Amino acid sequence: MPLVVRAHLAGGVAQGAPWGIALDGLLASAMWQETKASAIAAGQGYARAMEVDDPPDLDLPLARCRAGNGAWHWAATCLWPGAEAQTDAHVWMGKLDHRDLEHVADRLPKIISGRQGRFRGRRMPVLVTSTPQVTWRAVGDPDRIAELLEPVRSIGKKRGSGEGHVLSWEISAAPELDPLAAGHLHPDGTLGRTTPKACVRRLEQAGCPPTVDGGTGLAGLRPPYMHPARQTRLRLPALLDG
Q: How far is residue 8's CA from residue 169's CA, in Å, rounded to a whole number?
């Protein structure tokens, strides 16, 4: 069924791409944690997705959108922060703890520089989308999606520094949404995910073409998005900076 997924945030989310975090990627990550834990508990080995030539597709609780010629993707959008979201520059810092280093090393040099080398201190900026909640749209199984997302307590980059902290998840049915639009478009009508041209034509034929997109470029079609086997020329989502 068409769904709306919301994450209520403590402050905002830090993102590396010019568009939002993909819901299918988030679910695949959560399901991979389950799969990996089961393999370890059973004493079995496992291969990381980026280390194999053709990574398998996990059985996500989402509908599949078939674009033809064997290409398909999950019916789910990327994160939409809302029209009133703002971009802020936060700072993260890293500094060597000499006491911890003494505990893990049997001998140390007389001087460990905090200004140069591998142990130097760092003070780096990170761009954060400040918003109280973010939204995805999808077509799938709400109960299984809720089960996978429930243990996810932070999203995006620099989670260890407190960014992207999730207060709660909200998954609600949206029967008023057209399934085709729910799997491709943000609430404001912009393109919401990396999309084959065939899917854009279907949206246009159905009377709901995307009002804005990010152009055409090389991108991943489905998780794992960074794997070379997933890369192809696609219509890109609307960029977060407008």
A: 6
Computed over every residue of the chain, the mean pLDDT equals 90
Torsions phi, psi of 168, nearest 5? -165, 160
Assigned domain for 240 exists: no
Q: Is 183 exposed, middle or buried, given 0-12, 13-18 or 19+ CB atoms closer than 10 A?
A: buried
Please give the helix or strand (H or E) that residue 200 lies within, else none: helix 197-205
From first CA to last CA, the distance across the chain in angstroms is 30
Phi/psi for 25 (5° steps) reads -65, -40
| pTM of the complete model | 0.86
φ/ψ of 49, rounded to 5, equals -60, -35
**Half-sphere exposure (CA, 13 Å, Cβ side) for 106?**
0
Average pLDDT over residues 85-106: 84
Q: What is the 3-state secondary structure (H, E, C) of 45-96?
A: CCCCHHHCCCCCCCCCCECEEEEECCEEEECECECECCCCCEEEEEEEEECC
What is the span of the domain harbouring residue 211?
Answer: 2-41+55-87+125-235
